[in-house]
Amino acid sequence: MKRFLLGLLLISGWGVAAWLLVSNGPAPSTFPPPAQAGPDSVQKSSEIFEKWSADPALAGALIGFCVLDESGQTVFSSPLAKTALCPASALKTVTTAAALELLGSDFRFETTLSSSTPIGPNGILAGDLGLVGSGDPTFASGDLAELAAAVVKSGLKRVNGTLRVDASIFPQAPVNDHWNWGDIGNAYGAGAYGVNIDHNRLSIRFATTAIEGADAKLTGGGPVTRDTRWINRVLTGPAGSGDHTVVYSEPFGRTITLQGTVPAGDSNFIVAGAIPDPPALVLELLESRLKEAGVILSAANQNASGPPAASDAPLEIALASHRSAAMPEIIDHLHRVSDNLEAQCLFLTLGIRANRDPSVALRAYWETRGIAFTGLRLIDGSGLARANMIRPLDLARINHAVRHGEQGARFRQSLSTYLGGNVRSKLGAMSGVRTEVGFLTLPDGREFTFALMANGLALDVDFWPLREKLLNAIRAAE
To answer: Considering the entire predicted model, what is its pTM?
Structure first.
């Protein structure tokens, strides 16, 4: 069955020095260590949790739950709230909250079409022309077309140098070593490149007969580079069975292997996959756009994507630029659909800004905000890696810190809501894992911060109604 994800350090004690390294600005006020709430509240919450967690559906699972009041005091903390668990996509809030506070609400990614020399009065560019990426996860083919059109409108008629795509803004590999091989070829596991296009997603189309177990015909797939090779091993499953395919590919690769099943009797069934080499695809698209507009590309130029070579002339002259939506709008979408690519690009950008490994930079920043981590293992910014580990108590404290900071109202607004608007939260889910972190509004108007993390659930457990039952009971008791 296809795995899916709804929608997810090494240095401590930096204090104010870490903040200066990350932001070059003044240190914020720290988040004070929470004290314990009164014994009555603790007792009531303990009884509620003990009764709730005794549900047979939760047998054998590891469940950590904690609740903080408006001052940050611990209203309730289950024994496993102090044990690091896998957070899945709830980890995204660690990244997005830091991005809002460090990069700011006015931050936008900027992608430029630049040259190494000015365009001559005759429209001839003697040097190189290249797209310079900023790691924008929202950059689209339409944006690329607008950049090409703008340069043509400025008078460009011929490029005698090399046509390039510079994706070197992110020095890290586009996929994390801890991501599952069965994830990275699928749309939700698309890698984060210095140049991305259309969320790095491709569509794969199948036509199937009504016969179960027959070969599923691959009728199309893309966008991908021209030299991409397809290996199709997909069969037909029962009618109406849905998408049970796995797409296998590697970063910068040219082979896509398809396995699994699609429903029988469907003439146009579409599966979403990850583009293996977005920078190379962007280069091909840019080349096509320029040629369609009548720009002559020298037969001698060697098109190139990826990091610049030592011999490449710097692309220092910006001819046209595209700016993304502002940070809050990106986070709105990221939280709403649990977008792994957007989260990972923010994570890598925070590392670039700090000139450090992003995991180190992120941990150091939250330590300056008063979070004393225990058992933290921060592998990525999206929660896609099962190797990520964080205590429910620390996850709740991070969300409490951002909620009570300058970006608190905007951060809260970006989260999904349910229970009649009384909960604003970010969910996380992967096989056997269900998590949630967010804010619970009580009948008297107070707002508590909570984190609920369940690991080792049976695959047939319908967890979300159970968590609603728990939160409703907490509201009623308070």
So the answer is: 0.91
